[in-house]
Amino acid sequence: PEYFHTSQLTEKSNVYSFRVVLAELLTGKRPIDMERAQEQHNLTTYFIMSMKENKLFQILEPRVVREGSLEQLQAMAELIKRCMFMNLEDRPTMKEVAMELEGLRKFSKNHHHQQAYGLHESK
């Protein structure tokens, strides 16, 4: 959005664009789809609207839901939301995005390892 207003690209412009890739990966949907209902044409708008209405899990790719934990999916959704912040200072850097994604990947590996070997915590 800042490019539209200032004609300047920044590192955080890439973060704003990357949110589309992340949303595509989670939903399996195209960024723009005129066959969806009008309020759903734009994937990122549809994604945020679904989050606000607590319907995010209804639009996620079923395989993603099966393979990811609730915590991972919620963290990914929040990361995508932060990548859309209009205020550059509030938007994460690409390095921060990469670090958070790496943390989610490690969480996934650890979580699956614990399940495979029965190492999950008992309450």
TrEMBL record:
<dbReference type="InterPro" id="IPR011009">
    <property type="entry name" value="Kinase-like_dom_sf"/>
</dbReference>
<dbReference type="GO" id="GO:0005886">
    <property type="term" value="C:plasma membrane"/>
</dbReference>
<dbReference type="GO" id="GO:0005524">
    <property type="term" value="F:ATP binding"/>
</dbReference>
<protein>
    <submittedName>
        <fullName>Wall-associated receptor kinase-like 10</fullName>
    </submittedName>
</protein>
<keyword id="KW-0547">Nucleotide-binding</keyword>
<dbReference type="InterPro" id="IPR000719">
    <property type="entry name" value="Prot_kinase_dom"/>
</dbReference>
<feature type="domain" description="Protein kinase">
    <location>
        <begin position="1"/>
        <end position="104"/>
    </location>
</feature>
<dbReference type="InterPro" id="IPR001245">
    <property type="entry name" value="Ser-Thr/Tyr_kinase_cat_dom"/>
</dbReference>
<dbReference type="InterPro" id="IPR045274">
    <property type="entry name" value="WAK-like"/>
</dbReference>
<dbReference type="GO" id="GO:0004674">
    <property type="term" value="F:protein serine/threonine kinase activity"/>
</dbReference>
<keyword id="KW-0808">Transferase</keyword>
<dbReference type="GO" id="GO:0007166">
    <property type="term" value="P:cell surface receptor signaling pathway"/>
</dbReference>
<keyword id="KW-0675">Receptor</keyword>
<keyword id="KW-0067">ATP-binding</keyword>
<keyword id="KW-0418">Kinase</keyword>
<dbReference type="Pfam" id="PF07714">
    <property type="entry name" value="PK_Tyr_Ser-Thr"/>
</dbReference>
